Amino acid sequence: MACNKDFSSSYMLLKPEEVRFFDLIHILFSSDIEKRKFVDAPEGTKEKRFRRRWLMFVSILTQKFLQFVAKPLSFVGSTTEMGLNLVSSNRNLFVLLLNALRGNVVKPDKTSASFLSFLGYWDKRVQLDSSIERGDGKYNAALSMMASKVSYENKAYIEAIVKDHWNMEFLGFYDFWNDYQGKATTQAFLLRDKTADDYDTIVVAFRGTEPFDSDAWCSDFDISWYELKGQEEVGKIHGGFMKSLGLQKNEGWPKNITKKDDSHPDLAYYAIREMLKELLGKNEKARYIITGHSFGGALSILFPAILILHEEKLLLERLDGIYTFGQPRVGDETFGKFMQQKLKDHNIRYFRFVYGNDIVPRLPYDDKTLMFKHFGTCLYYDRFYEGKIVEEEPNKNYFSPLGAIPMMINAFFELIRSFTIKYKKGPEYQEGSVLRLFRIIGLVIPGIPAHSTLDYVNATRLGSSELFLPHKNPENPN
Question: Ranges for the Fungal lipase-type domain (predicted)?
């Protein structure tokens, strides 16, 4: 059903569910993109640049493929995840076979605190690094990445980790509604890191893109955008990420909403905003940080963007930092400049972590043809986990043919490192067989294993604290 877009002064929305083959081919030869059934744009919109129409073609084709394989992909993911937990619940494969012969196989419970997601098997570490204490420049980054990592797990698992291993307060895990998809596809949890000496920090961690979730991958590859009416200085913002955060059909981003019924969960932005107001109101010294890996990183930087639009002074004053890991691009250059200035005005530091050849920070495509741009302080880490502040990550579009061979060579050394790192850095850095399998796949597609939470956890632990000192980045103080 069509929805009212009066809240937007301009927009370009791709609708892969409505595409037909010949209509899709036609976009390569015609600039009248608004005449295509799968493109929603204001009447009379034209796109004369072939390369941009080509990228729209590729985006639609990719999303259509992801929609086509959604069910089998979900089945493969669920089966793989259950199989890994089945082996783990019975200690190992040999004991599982023995238990099967005896008829007493231990079956895993998907809602239990011992059930791990597929990504959880990439990195089973649950403890915070005891050598990184409060007051260390990288403490918030290390805590944020661990929170981003466990956000992929179920509620019982997250609660157990926060309470039993981190000795912090678990504030809740939530499923949030996507008004456009008509289902709850956004997840986040909150914790409180508090000590007796008035240290009080709330962490909001958004869950990222799950490997077998076609909906989330469609958002990553979508190049749709909105420009909000009356807010043209804000620029163009990624449509899929805004929908996941809480953009409403027909209404956009009203400052306040009234929930119409209780038939579905709340919208992420509004629910989290009200929770933070209540929590921060109990202690005037309390602060909060926002974090997320992958898709979760995109939501993490868009959350304060909407706070800025709504002039939420209290929440902007108490925001201690934004930490994103492997985050995709969320808006155009105008949006980036707007956010840079606003973050500076409110003294909010924004750190965007990029490890190696991670493919996701290089999406959506960024060149003179397409508009998406990164902003903020980019902390780039190589395979030795040595970090540096850069304006933009190397090989920013990933797909450059000239970069393919160096990336494959780097992936080979990452595979070698997976066998040697425990001897150089300690047993807690040992990699498991699941991630090593993906390291092998990375010899052909280097950007996939580089997106792992393990490499980002290692970067926050092994990287230098000096990167977080303000004077280290004088040209980009955020």
Answer: 203-366
Q: What are phi and psi of 125, to 5 degrees?
A: -60, 135
Buried b / exposed e over 288-310, threshold 16 CB at 10 Å, is bbbbbbbbbbbbbbbbbbbbbeb
Among residues 151, 214, 294, 300, the one annotated as catalytic is: 294
More confident residue, 12 or 198: 12
219 tagged catalytic: no
Condensed to tens digits (0 to 9), the pLDDT of residues 109-147 reads 999 999 999 999 999 999 999 999 998 999 999 999 999
Q: Is 384 exposed, middle or buried (0-12, 13-18, 19+ CB in 10 A)?
A: exposed
Options 213, 358, 366, 455, the catalytic residue = 358
As for how many domains the chain has, the answer is: 1
CATH for 161: 3.40.50.1820
Residue 123 is a catalytic residue: no
Query: Does 249 reside within a domain?
Result: yes
Query: Structural domain of residue 155, as residue ranges?
Result: 118-468
Q: Which of 238, 293, 374, 451 is catalytic?
A: 451
Position 205: which residue type?
A
Which pair of structure tokens corresponds to residue 461? Answer: 């632990």
Q: Is 358 a catalytic residue?
A: yes
Q: What is the largest CA-CA distance in the chain?
A: 71
Closest CA to 376 of 304, 313, 310, 311: 304
Q: Are strands 200-206 and 183-194 parallel, antiparallel or unpaired?
A: antiparallel
The conformation of residue 33, written as its DSSP 8-state character, comes to G
How much is the pLDDT for 220?
77
Residue 38 domain flag = no
